[in-house]
Design goal:
Layout: E1 29-33, E2 43-50, E3 53-56, H1 62-71, E4 83-90, E5 94-102, E6 105-114, E7 116-118, E8 121-124, H2 130-144, E9 148-155, E10 162-165, H3 171-182, E11 186-194, E12 199-207, E13 213-217
Parallel strand pairs: 6-9, 8-10, 9-11
Antiparallel strand pairs: 1-2, 2-3, 4-5, 5-6, 7-8, 10-13, 11-12, 12-13
Length: 218
Amino acid sequence: MELDNGEIATVHCPNSGSMKGCNLPGSPVYLSISDNPGRKYPHTWELVLADGCWAGINTQLPNRLVREAIENGVVRELQGYDNIRPEVSYGDNSRIDLLLSRAGERCYVEVKNVTLVEDGRALFPDAVTARGQKHLRELMSVVKGGDRGVIFFVIQRADGDAVSPADRIDPEYGRLLRLAIAEEVEALAYRARVTPVKLYWLSGFRWLCSRFLHCRPI
C-alpha cells in the first residue's frame, strides 16, 4: 500500500479469499494500525473503495458485528436466546462462529463475509473454499441431530440487492448451499453500508428460490 506520506508499506490482509472485485490497483483504502511490538506488519487492511462504495474486507469483523446485531435486536430471526458463545468446538474438528442457546435448545451460526458484487448481485465465495464446503456439511449434520443451523452472510458493501452462491467460482459450494437449504439449514443475510466512520445495517435477505437470496427491509 502507498501511505499518505508516499511510503510503500506491506500490510496485513485478514482475508483468505481472492479479493476479486476489491483488489483493483490504485483503489483508496483504509488501514488500521496496531501498537503491538510483536507484529510483523503494524498495518491491517480494513476497507477498500470498490465500484464507488466502501467494502469491508476484514473477515475477523463480521462475527462481532453479527453478535452485536443479535444482542441489539437487529436480527429478528435470532432473538430469544439466553446465551451467545463464540468459537465453540463442534463437528469434525470445527469451531462454530456463534452458538446460541436456551433451555435445551441450541442454534449454530456460521458467519460469512461477502465482498464480491457483480451486476447488483452479491456473490459468495470469491474463491474455491473447501473450508466453506465443510461448514455447510457440518450445519446439515447439526440440523439432522435436532439442533438449529444457520448460515449467515454479512454483505459488507451496499451496492448488492440480492445474494447468490458464486457457482462460476465454486460450483460445489453452490450445490451444497442449495442442498443445505433443502435440509432445513437456514440462510440469513444482512447488508451493510460501510463508511470509514460507522457501519449501518441496511437490510436483510431471505432465501426465496433455488438461485437467489433477495432483500427485504428491516
